[in-house]
Amino acid sequence: MRCAEIARKTKESDITLKLSLDGGAVEIATGIGFFDHMLTALAFYAGWGLELTVKGDLEVDGHHTVEDTGIVLGQALKAALGDRRGIRRFASAYIPMDEALCFTALDFSNRPFLVFDADMPQTVIGEYDACLTVEFMRALAMHAGLTLHQRCCYGANAHHITEALFKSLGVSIQEAVRVEGARVVSTKGVL
Q1: Cβ contacts of residue 83 below 8 Å, gap of 6+?
Q2: pLDDT of 72-89, one tens digit each?
Q3: Are 164 and 133 a contacting pair, CB within 8 Å?
Q4: What's the pLDDT score for residue 143?
Q5: DSSP E strands, the chain
Q6: Which three-class secondary structure string do you get for 30-53?
């Protein structure tokens, strides 16, 4: 079973998460409607089961909630992958969302890195600050051991751009974590 359960409590957030890389129920409650929508899309396109509850200091703003969710989801993804034996490892996807086109390329290399090139034309999407997308992606990549490149090729609507980024991430993750054999896909022999 490629699953993980994480609980993390700080002065800024209280998070419980259950992740199954091979499917299951998706129940997400972060207190930020648009972020719930993006995480639901991510889980759907990644083929995950994801149960996530976040109680963050939203009276301050959404930053800690979004970043800490990325940390915990990254930790769970890393734990669920174990030694990464048999996974495809690399993947990429272009996803259009109306006028926006976004691209994700990733490598479950265990060498975390983020390249993020996606300007947001609007600063707020519902109660979600558009600048938090890069914070989530950075936290996820750093804690999952993921090399992650994301780019918005073009787009005029921050909602569409953000959604295409999350969906392309999900499609890429589903392909990259697919088990294709028993070997570690690395010339070093380990990831």
Answers
A1: 184, 190, 191
A2: 999 999 999 999 999 999
A3: no
A4: 98
A5: 3-9, 13-20, 26-29, 49-56, 90-97, 100-107, 113-117, 124-125, 128-129, 147-154
A6: CCCHHHHHHHHHHHHHHCCEEEEE
Confidence check: pLDDT of 185 > 90: no
What is the chain's Cα-based Rg? 16
What is the chain's length?
191
User: Is residue 62 predicted with pLDDT exceeding 90?
Assistant: yes
Read off the amino acid at residue 130.
A
Token look-up 């918005």 returns 152
The model's pTM is 0.97
pLDDT above 90 (res 128): yes
Average pLDDT over residues 101-118: 98
Token representation of residue 98: 């109306």
Reduced to 3 states (helix: H, G, I; strand: E, B; else coil), residue 80 is helix
Residue type for position 128: Y
Neighbours of 187 (CB within 10 A): 5
Angstrom distance (rounded) from CA 128 to CA 130? 6
Quick one: average pLDDT of 128-152? 98
Residue with tokens 């980024």, as numbered in its chain: 165
Contact 54, 14 (CB under 8 A): yes
The strand pairing partners of 91, in sequence order, are: 106
State the DSSP string of 166-182. Answer: HHHHHHHHHHHT-B--S
